């Protein structure tokens, strides 16, 4: 750190006056953008802790005074929001775990095993990835309702639990980069395919699995459109949907309540982000560019 | 029978391969491939979810393109949304990425984490906060405007401002994401190019114009394509903030599709919309490849 700093000072001294002014402006700009990024979230938190009578105070004030948890209490008592939260957690965790399992199995097969038609099937996977979601949306809904899954966790979980073409593709690309020597050694020692998958490929791919896992988890956690279609009873709603419909219900003007809901919805994701930031950001680069 | 069951699968049998992809592949068939084909079929019918579907030929497509005024509105709104978000959003992320990647920047990790934060958050939840920011009476945005002496606006209930307001939130949400991709692109540029440029005396803008920009083209290209496709997928923010209003000014393509399919139950009609969207996306992608494709490959 000290090295970086002295490096910075060294470069800074070499700048002309004009350049120094420009850089001060740049830092100002960055400060403004930092505030812009954080303010909506801070506002969310601040409002959720305000008393109902203090929400519409003009001029607006970020800091709640006095701090009260009445909105959170109301959120969990008057609205089945804790149930929404549970629904989201159950669906997101199940989908993430099972998608990782099935996608990695398929990806291992595409990357390492040999069977007739393998590359053709893989091409088919690539092709389906180019089709926008709307094309499959309506018929997916029909299939889910024919399977009598509407209004159950199954409606949210089943269509995605066996992994997507995308996840399989991503892991397959990663598995291709793993050295084959370990597997060859294991095979000579009499290791079966399933064991090679479970004890060699999977442990070597932790970072790729976490990256994909976070991607899938976030997608499930934040998704609102699909649940809107397949969930129609109040207590089965996941949080993103529950919150959206809450804002159009009789609680629609109770902004402290809505913001409390938004905090419960966003909070866990931000905590996860704080701890596994590396995977979020690297994941974007990997999932985006490859 | 008993015997064959006990006999394990031969180690080099191709069945292993099929066995491993089986659950995944079945799921792709049932939930992706069949829907793709079935939607195409539905788009030529008048299916309404209750009655039997009748084959109506291309009349859904004809009706959409020639008669449906709202279809045109939704398409126009989507294009406008893309025009609002992409040029501003991409240039903003490019500027941020360049500055962040500069050697004079300190606290890089901090800034990167904070700028990326909006991308992580649930869209439905942050759209709700923004809806309140935009509130004409109690919103913080009007308060800021009025405190510097500018007149307050009605934002989401103003016919001309509603769509740009949603677009502004979308820029807020995606700028950090795009910036991270561009920073990765910048870091992938080999330093010997800059060293060579130094030897040739290239400075400042020349370096940017002849090294950074062309080398960054693949990342920029990627962002443009995803952003274009993304504007056709907008749904959550419209659902939370305006529900297509005021006066259909924020009726975007995806929202209109949703209304047709799941509020009016015009499944065949909505399927036709989905396929038109598919065609539009394919055309845009090909066009962008044609336009920029020649400049994209600088593999070294």
Tags for this entry?
heterodimer, A: 290 residues, mainly alpha, MetI-like fold, 2 domains, B: 300 residues, 13 helices, disordered N terminus
Strand content of chain A: under 5%
- How many domains of chain A? The number is 2
Largest interface by Cβ-Cβ < 8 Å: A-B, 97 and 90 residues
Helical coverage of chain B, percent range: over 70%
Outline type of chain B = globular
User: Uncertain spans of chain A, ≥5 residues at pLDDT below 50?
Assistant: none
The number of helical segments of chain B is 13
Largest sheet of chain B, in brief, is:
none
Give the helices and strands of chain A as they follow along the chain. Answer: HHHHHHHHHHHHHHH
Distance between termini of chain A? Answer: 32 Å
CATH architectural category of the largest domain in chain A: Orthogonal Bundle
Please give the oligomerization state of what you see.
heterodimer
- The H/E string of chain B reads HHHHHHHHHHHHH
CATH classification class of the largest domain in chain A: Mainly Alpha
Rounded to an integer, what's the Rg of chain A over CA atoms? 25 Å
Largest sheet of chain A at a glance? none
Structure class of chain A: mainly alpha
SSE layout and pairings?
The complex is a heterodimer of chains A (290) and B (300).
Chain A: H1 2-14, H2 17-48, H3 70-78, H4 81-112, H5 118-129, H6 133-146, H7 153-161, H8 165-177, H9 181-188, H10 193-204, H11 206-222, H12 225-230, H13 239-246, H14 255-275, H15 277-289
Helix pairs in contact in A: 2-14, 3-14, 4-7, 4-8, 4-11, 4-13, 9-10, 11-15, 13-14
Chain B: H1 2-6, H2 15-42, H3 59-67, H4 69-101, H5 108-120, H6 123-133, H7 140-147, H8 162-187, H9 191-199, H10 204-231, H11 236-241, H12 253-263, H13 267-296
């Amino acid at each position: 750190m000290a090295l970086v700093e002295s490096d910075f000072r060294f470069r800074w001294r070499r700048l002309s006056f004009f350049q120094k002014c420009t850089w001060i402006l740049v830092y100002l700009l960055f400060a403004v953008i930092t505030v812009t990024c954080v303010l909506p979230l801070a506002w969310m938190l601040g409002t959720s802790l305000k008393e109902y009578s203090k929400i519409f105070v003009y001029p607006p004030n970020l800091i709640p005074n006095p701090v009260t948890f009445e909105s959170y209490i109301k959120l969990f008592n008057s609205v089945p929001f804790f149930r929404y939260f549970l629904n989201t957690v159950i669906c997101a965790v199940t989908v993430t775990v099972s998608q990782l399992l099935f996608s990695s199995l398929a990806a291992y097969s595409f990357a390492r095993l040999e069977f007739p038609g393998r590359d053709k099937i893989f091409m088919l996977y690539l092709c389906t990835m180019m089709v926008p979601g709307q094309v499959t949306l309506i018929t997916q809904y029909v299939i889910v309702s024919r399977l009598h899954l509407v209004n159950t966790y199954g409606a949210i979980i089943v269509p995605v639990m066996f992994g997507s073409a995308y996840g399989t593709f991503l892991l397959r690309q990663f598995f291709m980069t793993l050295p084959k020597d370990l597997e060859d050694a294991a095979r000579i020692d009499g290791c079966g395919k399933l064991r090679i998958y479970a004890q060699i490929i999977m442990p070597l791919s932790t970072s790729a699995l976490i990256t994909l896992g976070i991607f899938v988890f976030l997608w499930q956690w934040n998704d609102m459109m699909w649940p809107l279609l397949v969930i129609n009873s109040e207590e089965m709603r996941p949080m993103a949907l529950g919150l959206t419909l809450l804002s159009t219900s009789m609680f629609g003007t109770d902004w402290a309540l809505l913001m409390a809901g938004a905090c419960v919805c966003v909070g866990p994701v931000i905590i996860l982000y704080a701890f596994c930031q590396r995977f979020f950001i690297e994941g974007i680069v990997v999932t985006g560019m490859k | 029978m008993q015997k064959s069951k006990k006999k394990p699968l031969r180690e080099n049998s191709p069945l292993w391969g099929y066995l491993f992809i089986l659950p995944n592949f079945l799921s792709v068939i049932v939930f992706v491939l069949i829907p793709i084909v079935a939607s195409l079929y539905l788009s030529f019918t008048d299916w309404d979810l209750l009655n039997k579907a009748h084959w109506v030929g291309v009349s859904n497509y004809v009706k959409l393109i020639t008669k449906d005024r709202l279809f045109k509105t939704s398409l126009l709104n989507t294009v406008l949304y893309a025009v609002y978000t992409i040029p501003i959003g991409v240039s903003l992320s490019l500027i941020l990425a360049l500055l962040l990647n500069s050697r004079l920047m300190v606290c890089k990790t901090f800034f990167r984490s904070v700028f990326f934060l909006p991308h992580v958050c649930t869209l439905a939840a942050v759209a709700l906060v923004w809806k309140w920011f935009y509130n004409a009476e109690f919103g913080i945005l009007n308060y800021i405007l009025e405190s510097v002496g500018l007149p307050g606006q009605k934002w989401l209930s103003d016919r001309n401002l509603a769509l740009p307001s949603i677009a502004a939130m979308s820029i807020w949400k995606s700028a950090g994401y795009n910036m991270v991709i561009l920073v990765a692109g910048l870091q992938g540029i080999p330093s010997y190019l800059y060293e060579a440029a130094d030897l040739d005396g290239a400075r400042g803008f020349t370096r940017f114009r002849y090294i950074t920009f062309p080398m960054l083209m693949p990342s920029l290209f990627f962002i443009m394509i995803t952003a274009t496709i993304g504007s056709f997928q907008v749904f959550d923010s419209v659902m939370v903030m305006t529900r297509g209003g005021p006066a259909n000014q924020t009726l975007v393509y995806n929202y209109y599709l949703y209304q047709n399919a799941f509020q009016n139950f015009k499944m065949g009609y909505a399927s036709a919309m989905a396929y038109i969207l598919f065609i539009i996306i394919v055309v845009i992608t090909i066009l962008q490849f044609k336009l920029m494709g020649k400049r994209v490959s600088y593999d070294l």
